[in-house]
Design goal:
Blueprint (H helix, E strand, L loop, with lengths): L35 H12 L13 H4 L4 H23 L11 H36 L9 H77 L5 H6 L12 H5 L23
Length: 275
């Protein structure tokens, strides 16, 4: 029923009209990608899965909405009028003009059969009207304002829109999964590039630190005078910050066999003695 809080003493609160079900898709979400019908379909999928296939219990709705009460009533009135005219016509054939005139006999039998069928149809139509009025009233509508064709059409439209929303929800979920996967791959690639850039910067900093250590050792040697002491430079390897014990310049002077070269002896230049 669409009645909500109808027994509230202060002011009766009523729910929505049944035809509002056909307008749920007009209520859009903030992203304009989904609507109220998508929300309702998701709600039933997640919380009330036993009600998702409610359309299966309404298989005859499509046929019911094609039935026009006005057309049925018009056809029944036409049948009754035809039977009445036939009955009047048979009044003139009570006494046949000849033995071969069997019109009255045959048509009287048909009229009796037709009257029985008409009464059955009329009873079925009356019973249908009562049932439709009851179900329309059950859903909070006024049978005098809502006919059967409108009532069933609204329900069929809602059922079809609901199934469409379910299909669209499934597509949106798949699209969201693909977007999340692509986002995850992009984040992974971004982290990889950041790590590679960090390693590159760390390598540059290490190289700069090593160069600064060599320069500091050279400045210390100049200050202490060791840079001018050739014997000390040959005997004592230069200490570096990175823990190296041998001077690179000394290692260059080594032979390929690994032995250090002996220092060259200065040749004595004879000097002339002045007399």
């Amino acid at each position: 029923s669409s009645g909500i809080n109808a027994e509230w003493p202060l002011r009766p609160g009523y729910g929505f009209k049944l035809n509002f079900l056909t307008k749920l898709q007009n209520t859009k979400a903030h992203d304009n990608r989904s609507n109220m019908l998508h929300f309702l379909a998701n709600l039933l999928e997640n919380r009330y899965p036993q009600w998702v296939n409610f359309k299966d219990d309404l298989r005859n709705l499509e046929k019911a909405r094609r039935v026009s009460d006005d057309q049925l009533s018009k056809q029944l009135r036409g049948m009754k009028k035809s039977l009445t005219n036939l009955k009047k016509e048979l009044e003139f054939h009570k006494n046949p003009e000849s033995i071969d005139d069997r019109f009255g006999t045959e048509m009287n039998a048909f009229l009796e059969y037709a009257n029985d069928e008409y009464e059955k149809l009329e009873a079925t139509y009356t019973n249908m009207g009562k049932c439709v009025a009851e179900i329309i009233t059950f859903y909070g509508e006024d049978p005098k304002k809502t006919n059967a064709e409108e009532f069933f059409s609204d329900i069929v439209t809602f059922c079809n829109d609901f199934e469409t929303a379910r299909v669209e929800n499934a597509k949106m979920k798949e699209a969201k999964k693909r977007e999340e996967k692509q986002k995850e791959l992009k984040e992974k690639e971004k982290r990889r590039k950041e790590q590679k850039e960090k390693e590159r910067k760390d390598f540059i900093i290490d190289q700069q630190g090593e160069g600064e250590g060599v320069l500091d050792d050279l400045m210390d040697a100049l200050k202490t005078g060791q840079a001018y002491n050739r014997d000390n430079r040959r005997q004592k390897p230069r200490q570096t910050r990175d823990g190296g014990k041998k001077d690179r310049n000394l290692s260059r002077g080594r032979s390929q066999t690994g032995h250090s070269q002996s220092p060259r002896k200065k040749k004595k230049v004879p000097t002339a003695t002045l007399r």
